[in-house]
Amino acid sequence: MNYEIEFKHSFTFSNENIADLLTTALEGGSNYWIGTLFTHGDTLLDTIKVARGDSTWEVQTDDDDEKVKLTAQAMRDGLQALAEKSYVSFKNIQDMDYDAIDADNWLQLTLFQEIVYG
């Protein structure tokens, strides 16, 4: 017999938390599949601009010519998707005890709505 359990809880993440998560993904978690990061004049230190919605970046993977937009809304949606699809990574991020793998899972869900690369 299977049982369905529904879990609902709200968590708050600041723009700074999301910017730090993006930095972790870019510096170590996702660099094995990101081909080109288009920051449109920003530097990698400007992740807070993307988290606040002041800037939009684009990502191109090593195996696809299409650019995917990285926006503040997409990053928030990625956290929701992470909570639903990879709760352990979400819990680590919520507890501020995450690593590059957790950040990579989040960024993949942010950009592709699924974990494509591992």
Can you describe what's shown?
The protein has helices at residues 15-29, 47-52, 72-85, 87-94, 100-112; strands at 34-38, 57-61, 67-70. A hairpin with a 5-residue loop joins strand 2 (57-61) and strand 3 (67-70). It is an alpha+beta fold. A three-stranded antiparallel β-sheet has the order 1-2-3. The radius of gyration is 14 Å and the shape is globular. Helix 3 (72-85) crosses helix 5 and helix 4 packs across helix 5 (100-112). It contains five helices and three strands, in the order αβαββααα. It has one domain (15-112). It is 47% helix and 12% strand.
Output the helix-strand order. Answer: HEHEEHHH
Main structural class = alpha+beta
Computed Rg: 14 Å
Uncertain spans: none
Our measurement of the CA-to-CA distance between the termini, rounded to an integer number of angstroms, reads 31 Å
List the main descriptive attributes of the protein structure presented here:
about 120 residues; alpha+beta; three-stranded antiparallel sheet; 5 helices; 3 strands
Protein topology:
Blueprint lengths: L14 H15 L4 E5 L8 H6 L4 E5 L5 E4 L1 H14 L1 H8 L5 H13 L6
Antiparallel strand pairs: 1-2, 2-3
Helix pairs in contact: 1-5, 3-4, 3-5, 4-5
Give the structure's gist in a few sentences.
The protein has 118 residues and is of the alpha+beta class. The chain is built from five helices and three strands.
